[in-house]
Amino acid sequence: MPAQATSLAKVWMINFNDARESEAAVIRRSAENGLSSAPTFPPGSLMSTIIDTFIAPPCHDEIETLYQDDHLLLINKPSGLLSLSGKNPQNIDSVHYRLVQQYPGCTLVHRLDFGTSGLMVVARNKAINAALCHQFSQRTVSKVYSALLCGHLNADDGVIDAPIANDPARFPLMSICPSNGKPARSRYQVVARIDQQQADGTILPLTRVQLTPETGRTHQLRIHCQLLGHPILGCDLYGGRLLPGTEQTTRLMLHASELRFVHPVSGERINAHHAAPF
């Protein structure tokens, strides 16, 4: 059951509580050579035989409803919960499945990855869904994510501009593909560089960043950070659990912390903030 909503004004105004190559060179070289972080299927394998065998473990965390009116909901999605129920009946639990029990007719306007937590806007009817989807398609919706990256970034800010394509032979991974990929662009801003001491006394270097996707491709921030040479901590698909000290990370350290859009009925500009829980 979603937690009790607060007033919209509070949502608007309060934040819920050694490189050998330059990063630009890493991006350029990786885009030219492609990524190979997953095994490929043997030649002749049929794409139709690729089956998603992922079974989501139970998520005991609640969805937090930050605001609601007759038209939309603003929620905080927990990490470890699907946005939409999967085809496998064992993957029925999801944001939509839970919300529709209390808000019949509600529909998702956008999604967050299974491991990503944070802000989502949910439409309560088809007309509002269409209006919000139009804002997303016109790229008038602004999203900012908080993340912990493996290692220390050299630059304090930058842009990652690398096309992304489906890669059926390595499902569910996406690939950087300059020839066939769809344009994808992300900006990053360093917040802090951290030396996290581990239980065995070793130091794990991390960088806290703000990530702003200018496009909305599947796995965009995750694969772009891998391309940068600093995968998101806890990302099992794109290298975020490979470095010593990262293996036991309990979740993907990615949180949708800011969401800005226009209320489709009132016309008010909504600037929602929700601080990362890590």
List keywords for this structure.
alpha+beta, Pseudouridine synthase, ten-stranded mixed β-sheet, two-stranded antiparallel ribbon, 5 helices, 17% helix, 28% strand, disordered N terminus
Explained architecture:
The chain is α+β, with helices and mostly antiparallel strands. The protein has helices at 8-13, 23-33, 95-102, 126-137, 220-228; strands at residues 64-68, 72-77, 107-108, 117-123, 142-150, 157-161, 164-166, 174-176, 185-197, 203-213, 254-262, 269-273. The strands form 2 sheets. Strands 1, 2, 3, 4, 5, 6, 9, 10, 11 and 12 form a 10-stranded mixed β-sheet that branches. A hairpin with a 5-residue loop joins strand 9 (185-197) and strand 10. The radius of gyration is 19 Å and the shape is globular. The two termini are 23 Å apart.
Mean pLDDT: 86
Summing up helix and strand content along with how strands pair, one would put the structural category as: alpha+beta
Helical content class: 10-25%
**β-strand number:** 12
Q: State the end-to-end CA separation.
A: 23 Å
Order of helices and strands: HHEEHEEHEEEEEEHEE
**Uncertain ranges:** 1-49
**Which architecture does the CATH hierarchy give at level 2?**
2-Layer Sandwich
User: Remind me, CATH topology?
Assistant: Pseudouridine synthase
Number of structural units classed as domains:
1
CATH class: Alpha Beta
Sum this structure up briefly:
With 278 residues, the chain is of the alpha+beta class. 17% of the residues lie in helices and 28% in strands. The protein has one domain: Pseudouridine synthase.
List the helices and strands and how they pair.
Layout lengths: L7 H6 L9 H11 L30 E5 L3 E6 L17 H8 L4 E2 L8 E7 L2 H12 L4 E9 L6 E5 L2 E3 L7 E3 L8 E13 L5 E11 L6 H9 L25 E9 L6 E5 L5
Parallel strand pairs: 4-11
Antiparallel strand pairs: 1-2, 2-4, 3-4, 5-10, 5-11, 6-9, 7-8, 9-10, 11-12
